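Many introductory courses stop at the sequence. We go one step further.
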Amino acid sequence: MERLATVTNTIIDPVCGMKVDPTKTDLVATHQGYSYHFCAEGCRKAFEANPKKYLHRKPAKPKGPKGWMGRYLERMAKSNRELFGDSRPQCH
């Protein structure tokens, strides 16, 4: 028997980052010709008060590896920066 894939049209609330199904919410705001859907009335009001704050966010910086190995690699990278600076060591 073949399984059918379920397609969901979820979008991201620009204020809190929560997934929202646009077919199940009436919380919509329009800014510069685009419609934005929200999970709650508070998110919609915050967006309408200052849309630029939520539309032009900087991407989050990736975190380094975790655990003892990640800490070891971070110490090694720091040691290499101290020895060789930010450039790679010169072999020739």
